Amino acid sequence: MAKPVLIIGAGIAGIQAALDLAELGVDVYLLDKKPSIGGKMAQLDKTFPTLDCASCILTPKMAAILKYKNIRLLMYSEVESVVGEAGDFRVRIRMKPKYVDWDKCTGCGTCIQKCPRKVPDEFNLGLNDRKAIYILFPQAVPRKAVIDAENCLRLNPPPELKERAKGRELCGVCEIVCPTKAIRYDDKPKRIELNVASIIIATGGEVYDPTRIPEYGYGKYMNVYTHLEFERLVSATGPTGGRILRKSDNKEPKKIAWIQCVGSRDRRFNHYCSAFCCMASTKEAILAKEHVKGVDATIFYMDIRSFGKGFNEFVERAKEEFGIRYIRGRVVKIEEESETKNLIVYYEDTFESKLKKDVFDMVVLATAIKPNIPRVIEGLALDEDGFIKLKDPYLDPVSTSIEGIYVIGIAASAKDIPDSVSEASAAAIRACQLAKGKELEVLADGGELDG
Amino acid sequence: MIYILREIVFIALQIYIILRMRTLNGLTVSERLIDVKYRPRILDEIVRLGGKSVTICYQCGSCTAICPLSEYFDTSFRKSIKYVQLGLTDLINSDLTPWLCYQCGECNDSCPREAYPGEIMMALRRYKIITNSIGRIARIFYDRLGLAVSLILLSLLALFGILFFIGPVNISYVDIYSFIPYDFIHNAGLVLGIIVGISVIYNILLMYRDFKSHYITGFYADGYNRGVGMWLKEFFSILVNEVMVQRLFNRCDGNKWRYVAHLSLFWGFTGLFISTSIHYIVDLSGIHIDVIYPRLIGIVSGILLIYGTIYHIYKRLRRNESRFKYTYASDWVFLILLFFVGVTGFLTTIYIYMDLAIATYLMYGLHVILVFDLLIIAPFTKFMHALYRPFALLFYKMYVGGVEYG
Ligand SMILES: Cc1cc2nc3c(=O)[nH]c(=O)nc-3n(C[C@H](O)[C@H](O)[C@H](O)COP(=O)(O)OP(=O)(O)OC[C@H]3O[C@@H](n4cnc5c(N)ncnc54)[C@H](O)[C@@H]3O)c2cc1C
Ligand code: SF4
Ligand code: SF4
Ligand code: SF4
Ligand code: SF4
Questions:
Q1: Could you tell me the strand order of the sheet in which A331-336 lies?
Q2: B311: closest CA of chain A, how far (Å)
Q3: Which of A39, A235, A358, B14 is 20 to 30 Å from the Cα of A189, by its Cα?
Q4: Cα–Cα distance between B192 and A299 in angstroms, integer?
Q5: What region, left, alpha or beta, does residue A134 occupy, with left being phi > 0 and alpha being psi -120 to 50 degrees?
Q6: A133 CA to middle of ligand 2, Å?
Q7: Predicted TM-score (pTM) of this structure
Q8: Range of the domain at A155
């Protein structure tokens, strides 16, 4: 019997690898630390270079995951340790308590409506609030609720309320309203151990924290956003329902600037190029033009890296059809006008060799991407930029330093969705070979051709 | 016969051309990321003069945009770096931009490539000091060995001069002229002054020639014209604002102490020059004024000079601020000479007052030697920025344009 394969991280890369393996008849564990699969792509509005809606591509794939009997989801879980070797890894996994019985929960959302406790919504990067009991996003797969224990009044009551309650339990609203009685306040973390043939790491990455680059004033100036925040802002499922509104005055901006290579290609922060942000900003600028009539969209760049299929045409279209301004020059600092909260950007227009200042209503930082590394795997080598090191970037680009452990997507290097997906399929084949080891050997022996 | 001769000449020419190409190509394989196979000679020269990272600049323009001077002058530091990368020697020679830079170091901190653009500007100034000196003589002083040898030779020359002319020395009380005779010190001073003066003027003319020869439009900036009045007005404006109070320097830098130290250096040096000149004129013309006035100026200036040099030497030794990170040998020599000129001058004065004859003579002799060294190399080392810069500003304002002081 073929042994299963574990996929850590259920972004687009992990999802694609799971689907390919399942199709090949291999059992798959798909693990994610979040309560839903989808990863970064679920947070995007549209994708370059076709401007297809991201969820229109992603949602069918996420739904497909549920159809395969040989894919088991390990949501809200983390890997604790990995021992063994290719073909025989033993993996310890900690499943965080969800406080909701997922077998019973139907995802109706009644509990969410009634929950009194509001906290910043991390899926929308804190641009709005969610409840203490929540479903990660509307199209979540699986569409089940979890309680954020830290912020729940019942599970972690604030000290002053606890005192007044005098020993009585607080809140408990969700338990009362849940039609299927799915709430379990006494849920405990669970540990399981798996025996797998191979592991695929697809933990993706996180946007670099731009507060480390003080000259852009992110976090200090209200109308400076990261590109991921902007994606949420234009998304119909986002905090503003798809309207681009400034944090400072809830008005539509008339002039938006994108600043490229923020924290990327910069020796002071990250050396590498984040690979997708040139195209992502081009896409976002087009979206801005579509959302706000007559908006001025300007991209400050040093080189536009439009290397993929159809990418260059996409940039040309942005310039000619949508009238997006591309200015060659790095913005060196941003200042805020104290009354209007508009932003003054300083740069050298390198075509004119002149210092210029320009005022914008909103600035979007095309911030670098940093990989998520599962630190628990001993002996997993990293490269000098902090990504997982590839065994051979030319001929074996999905293998890590450990045999039988593969890496795909942004965990390996900054890349876009098409590249992540191709790597996923490549890694799926490699993992399949290990999972089906014995069977394939037999086939190879018997596969002699007649002379 | 003629045919064979012609062939030989042709072959010789070809060999010559091939050899020249080889040297031009240089082909230094750089370990840097942005590597150019064709390395123009000037690139290596700038690297040698301290612009070590000129090849890694990726032309983002942050240095121009952060520079406080870009608000006052229509200029681009990035472009000057591009000229070096491309080896456009003529344009580099005519480019006055490096002279505008005050070495405040802000660009070093905001360069995403850590290319230290401020250091590249500094290297370009050294390069310009060399190319704009008579017969490129300054290159001797930008070579460690050349610098050491020439300093030793100059000092020996001064020493022998003193030994040769040394008078019947009065040991019982201080009489400076019994040590170095009156005529000798004055005539030597005069000759030295003329040599230095001519070098300085000639160097500035060279700078002007280079600037004009490739200055692209060849016209005066908007609102400027050929009138002598215009030139004079700008000249005095720069003299007051940029030389005497150094307003842009002050604005350019958040750091008041560095401004004060730099101004002290300038006024210390100028003050000493003035007090010496007064002495000189007094002696020469026989007019009687109380020597206390020039001496007072001298003492105050000496203190300023010593303070300024100590500040700069200290900062350069600490190297923790990006603008003080790299110091070229010749910059050290200039600073150290200044410092010791100040110290020896001071000590001499003190010894005179204490009436210690031998100590005075020794200190004074040392002082004279150091002053001699300093003045001779001044037109060819860092000192010249004090004169190139105001003139560069003048030419820049007249031909390219610049903003008025608000
Ligand atoms: C603003 C922005 C716009 C973009 N626009 C486009 C676009 O238009 N077109 C395009 O092609 N690409 C675009 N991209 C790039 C695209 O998002 C990525 O290429 C893609 O999402 C990478 O997928 P992934 O699966 O490698 O990583 P992710 O999508 O990041 O998924 C990683 C998953 O792993 C989970 N995880 C992380 N660490 C652990 C752990 N330790 N244990 C368990 N689970 C873990 C995470 O919760 C997440 O679900 C954009 C990126 C950004 C930031
Ligand atoms: S009310 Fe119950 S069934 Fe409905 S989403 Fe909440 S936990 Fe699930
Ligand atoms: S117990 Fe109350 S606060 Fe906690 S999740 Fe349920 S409704 Fe929200
Ligand atoms: S993709 Fe573009 S914006 Fe992003 S780091 Fe690379 S060059 Fe800079
Ligand atoms: S800031 Fe650095 S990389 Fe950018 S143009 Fe100046 S020297 Fe070059």
A1: A331-336, A343-349, A354-360
A2: 29
A3: A39
A4: 59
A5: beta
A6: 9
A7: 0.88
A8: 110-177
Q: Report the alpha-carbon distance of residue A430 to residue B51 in Å, rounded.
A: 50
Domain termination residue (choose one: A369, A389, A414): A369
* Substitution candidate for ligand 2 out of A100, A148, A173 with most atoms within 8 A of CB: A100
Q: Which ligand is nearest to the CA of B106?
A: 5
DSSP string for residues in A284-327: HHHHHHHHSTT-EEEEEES-----STTHHHHHHHHHHTT--EEE
Specify whether A426 is located in the same domain as A327: no
Q: Which residues line ligand 1 (CB under 6 A)?
A: A 8-14, 31-34, 39-41, 44, 47-48, 78, 202-205, 207, 227-228, 231, 276, 280, 283, 372, 374, 409-410, 415-418, 420
Q: Which of B58, B59, B110 sits opposite A332 (nearest CB)?
A: B110
Domain B36-132 in CATH 1.10.1060.10: yes
> What string of pLDDT tens digits covers the 451 residues of chain A?
679 999 999 999 999 999 999 999 999 999 999 999 999 999 999 999 999 999 999 999 999 999 999 999 999 999 999 999 999 999 999 999 999 999 999 999 999 999 999 999 999 999 999 999 999 999 999 999 999 999 999 999 988 888 888 878 889 999 999 999 999 999 999 999 999 999 999 999 999 999 999 999 999 999 999 999 999 999 999 999 999 999 999 999 999 999 999 999 999 999 999 999 999 999 999 999 999 999 999 999 999 999 999 999 999 999 999 999 999 999 999 999 999 999 999 999 999 999 999 999 999 999 999 999 999 999 999 999 999 999 999 999 999 999 999 999 999 999 999 999 999 999 999 999 999 986 655 555 554 554 4
Q: Give chain B positions within 8 Å (CB) of A259.
A: none
Provide the CATH topology of domain B143-400: Fumarate Reductase Cytochrome B subunit (1.20.950)
Kindly report the nearest CA distance between residue A137 and chain B, in angstroms.
37
